[in-house]
Design a protein that fits this description.
Layout (H helix, E strand, L loop, with lengths): L1 E4 L1 H11 L3 H6 L5 H8 L6 H11 L3 H4 E4 L4
Antiparallel strand pairs: 1-2
Length: about 70
């Protein structure tokens, strides 16, 4: 099971809510490595996704999309 993070959508939401990556790091205690993993569509924990949804006041479907593993 794989999750594809819609990073472009994520940053569109950030702009609309005026939440920058700097603010995520400085005020919401995200680590720079978490931000890099999000930007590169790498593995992130469900805890991180949950925090991001709470900060952005959005649903998981707004920032992530399920994609089946390719065999």
């Amino acid at each position: 099971m794989d999750f594809f993070l819609g990073v472009q959508l994520h940053f569109t939401i950030n702009r609309q809510k005026e939440i920058t990556t700097y603010k995520l790091i400085k005020y919401h205690n995200f680590s720079p490595s978490q931000i890099q993993r999000l930007k590169r569509n790498q593995c992130v924990s469900t805890y991180t996704l949950n925090r991001l949804c709470n900060i952005l006041t959005c649903d998981i479907k707004d920032i992530a999309q399920y994609r089946e593993d390719e065999l």
